[in-house]
Amino acid sequence: MARIPVRFDMGEKKGLIVGGGRAASVKVKQLASLSVALRIVSPEISADIVRYAHDRPESVELIQEAYETKHLHNVSLVI
Predict the structure, then answer these.
(1) End-to-end CA distance of the chain, in Å?
(2) What is the tens place of the pLDDT at every residue in 1-28?
(3) pTM for this structure?
(4) What is the DSSP string of 1-58?
């Protein structure tokens, strides 16, 4: 897989991660370490992500349902 380096100033913006498994868990930790507010949407969310979000309720929002376009509201980056 080719990688494309991207620089994006998130500032006070929110990122959306669609998925709740192992790959999403890695992305959550990477983005949260940069103080990015996150919304995670998936019908199934791993216990690891739930624990992580529970410890950071002000910056990590969990939505346990299938992705819909309504989840894009106030989001600047989708992963």
Answers:
(1) 16
(2) 677 777 877 778 899 999 999 999 999 8
(3) 0.86
(4) ----------TT-EEEEE--SHHHHHHHHHHHTTT-EEEEE-SS--HHHHHHHHT-TT
